[in-house]
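Hi U.,

Before I forget, here's the chain from the pilot set. I'm dumping it here mostly so it's searchable later in email.
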Amino acid sequence: MQYGFNAPTAGALYGVENLTRIVVGAEALGYDYATFSDHVVIPTSIDAKYPYSSTGEFPSGARGERHEQLTEMAFVAGMTKKLRLVSSVMVVPHRPAVLTAKILSTIDVLSGGRLVVGIGAGWMREEFEAIQAPDFDARGKVTDEYIAAFKELWTNEDPRFSGEHVEFGGIIFAPKPVQKPHPPIWVGGESGPALRRTAKLGDVWYPIGTNPQNSLDSLKRFKTQVARLRKMTTEAGRKPDAVGLTLRVTAYGESVPAQAGDGERRLFSGKPADIASDIRALRDMGVGCLDFGFPGNTVDEMLGAMQKLRSEVLTLV
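Structure:
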């Protein structure tokens, strides 16, 4: 099992000194990867519903100063030696396909093969319109086509592609990514379309457990969705276990309600031994990576929470 943490892309700790201390400190503590969120701009008026809160409100703390995701990942690559870098998730239609493939390939080369490409189709219509991205209503199709174009550019010495949203040929795309055949693609999302995208194009499924429309707050619910994914993967012509499993953990501990929405025990609630038991159960069903949202208003508080989880929970797994 590998363990990750959310690097500050926005908020009080996003500044260069704090960011550097956090990622270097987390690497020294033995964490395996850092995740980086993605918004290019935040519109001042948002009618779109945020998928990961019961109210649909976008968190007020995420509306301030913010780094561009891929640029921050490249910076952190230079500040660290072993830490894997996960776009969590990159909104695929926000950037032109060929340019994005080049940036990602460059990050993988310069980091020595530490890139993980977490992807999603996006949810905020207003942001799509503000940055003049492709039609929001076509975002699923655009995402799938861009991913196919990425793979062509990353793996073919004479890359050629002709689609509805991407077309290229007669170009040199080098160097290719260090990782072969390409950096792993973690597909975010919990909906039916996200699962179908995972089954067809993904190397790993990367959900968040707090989506009220597709909650994964109990082991039973998670297992049900994994079985659904396995079926879709088979229907897509792949082996049912071709797709790996991860999970993002937004909250844990005794402050988390003990009961999930289906009446079962809520994952990651309770004492350290309870959380360790949840991690073992997830590991036994094939989950290979977990990343946590660590609390803290200062660098020391955040690193302290990381150290506490390692010493009190992860040593029991």
